[in-house]
Amino acid sequence: RKSLEMVARDFLATTQTADEKQIRKDHHIKAFKNPSEMVVALTLAATKKATLSWDRLIVLGIMSGLYISIGGAVALTVGGGIQPVMSTVINGTLVAAETQIKVPILSKLVLAMVFPIALMLILFMGGELYTGNVMVMTLGILTQKVTILDLIKSLGVAFVSNYIGCVLGALACWGMGLFTADPYASFIQEVMIPKVSNNFGVNLLRGIPCNMLVCTAICIANTAEDVVGKVVGVWWPIFTFALAGFEHSIANMFFATLAALHGASWNYGTWFWQNLIAVLIGNTIGGGLFVAVVMWRCFYVTGKPPVVVQSEEKITPSGATYTKSPAITRFVYGFFEFLLLEITHADHVEKIALCR
Questions:
Q1: Residue 315: enclosing H or E segment and its boundaries?
Q2: Could you give the CA distance from residue 38 to residue 299 in angstroms, rounded to a whole number?
Q3: Which of 16, 247, 272, 317 could be 206's S-S partner, Cβ–Cβ 3.0 to 4.6 Å?
Q4: Where are the alpha helices (DSSP H) in the chain?
Q5: Residue 10: its pLDDT value, please?
Q6: pLDDT (tens digit, 9 = 90+) per residue, 43-61?
């Protein structure tokens, strides 16, 4: 049976025009933003990033690199630690290491399950991550809220400071001896094999869908209005790209530096050009073109955000105007709400009397 509050909301819904339903009403409670509102929120984020001072950009960028390192360290711990457990015993018989059955998907699965903590830490702590800034600042350029110099400053400082943070994180893991023994030491090298063996074009292509998913996670986090919604929204896209084997340039900074510190057989300079630069270009294309441009073209209507004017006249995304809901509508809704509160209060008093 519907409550009076639900009846009141249904009544209001029947009295609103199609244009009115496109804008959030004063009395409308929403747990998330629609795509147009989300694009506006990201555009505002671009203007805030453009006003950050150099020192704040550098510190937040280094912290983002450290957060990526934390997520990467946890992922390597669970991904490397699960390998010897899977096939040690078969039918009650201990199997020799060289004849153990390999189940590579299990290590990738658990690695992908925990790596999203890196982006969660960055988003909740307000970090500056290159791959996310690509989308946000590109939206700012497209909506003419920031300048090209703002974009170059944000991306350039984020890239360098993220690199510093990842190197510091790798040095910390190496200094603490977290991955010096097998199976962790060998698992780090195993993770890096496809990153250094693939050619420039393959790494570039793997970088495009990676940042599409990372930026999608950021969009969902901005869409959600509660912490739980943000956490769930971030987890799935990051889990997807990590499991699929796509390439994230900032995460690779940590993995490559850590592998080099543990005696990698490949050349660090070769990795820098063949993997990092290629993946960086792919990440930039994925976040800037396939997310920012698409979101701007589809949801930033005619170059103007949906505006909610707190007056008698409101503007719809299409540019049309209309007057606020008539006074009788607001009166009926207020009356229903008051009546619902009174009934709830009376029922509560009656229950107390019965208990006595």
A1: strand 313-315
A2: 9
A3: 247
A4: 4-14, 35-50, 54-81, 104-114, 117-125, 130-142, 148-176, 184-197, 200-223, 227-244, 249-261, 268-271, 278-287, 294-299, 327-355
A5: 56
A6: 999 999 999 999 999 999 9
